[in-house]
Design a protein that fits this description.
Elements (H helix, E strand, L loop, with lengths): L2 H27 L1 H10 L5 E6 L6 H22 L4 E8 L2 E8 L12 H11 L3 E5 L7 E7 L8 H8 L8
Parallel strand pairs: 1-2
Antiparallel strand pairs: 2-3, 3-5, 4-5
Helix pairs in contact: 1-2, 1-3, 2-3, 3-4, 4-5
Length: about 170
């Protein structure tokens, strides 16, 4: 196997372990704590503001967690940012997640797999995403998903949507 292929496989496996560990944290202590843990592991400083009343249905929390994960991954890899901010709030039956950074901007959901993966994950939960990313002025994907209990996709459905295996750890 060529060195580049091996490195990509190792990176994918490492990323899957991080995702699985974060999802375990979310299940155990809730979305707010899981997002704070994710922010602590970020390559750039992240301020987290979660305004929700208690726990939400699991599919809603999963959607929010993975939306933040994908956006912070994009920020670390591509944005050339010095800081980011995560804002999560519920209201009128909708969960809104916004991750903004002070990076270079110019992002486009149709180019590359990171933001496209974010779009796929959000849409898998019946949500929508908008992207504000003018060149030179940072990137801010904002997603919204129904916050009421409704059937959500399984981990297998998410795997298929983003081409990544998510494993559950104990």
């Amino acid at each position: 196997m060529p060195a580049g292929t091996e490195a990509q496989a190792a990176l994918t496996a490492s990323r899957a372990r991080i995702v699985a560990a974060g999802d375990q944290t979310r299940r155990r202590v809730g979305l707010r704590s899981a997002l704070r843990a994710l922010a602590r592991r970020s390559a750039v400083p992240v301020r987290v503001d979660v305004r929700t009343a208690g726990r939400m249905p699991e599919p809603v929390e999963i959607a929010a967690y993975f939306a933040v994960f994908e956006a912070l991954t994009y920020t670390a890899k591509h944005a050339r940012a010095s800081a980011a901010e995560v804002e999560v709030a519920t209201g009128e039956g909708v969960l809104r997640v916004r991750v903004s950074d002070d990076g270079c901007g110019g992002a486009d959901v149709s180019h590359g797999s990171g933001l496209a993966g974010l779009k796929d994950r959000v849409e898998a939960f019946g949500g929508r995403i908008s992207l504000h990313s003018p060149p030179g002025a940072g990137t801010a994907p904002e997603s919204s998903c129904p916050s009421t209990s409704r059937p959500g996709p399984s981990h297998r459905d998410l795997d298929a949507a983003v081409g990544m295996r998510i494993t559950k750890t104990r």
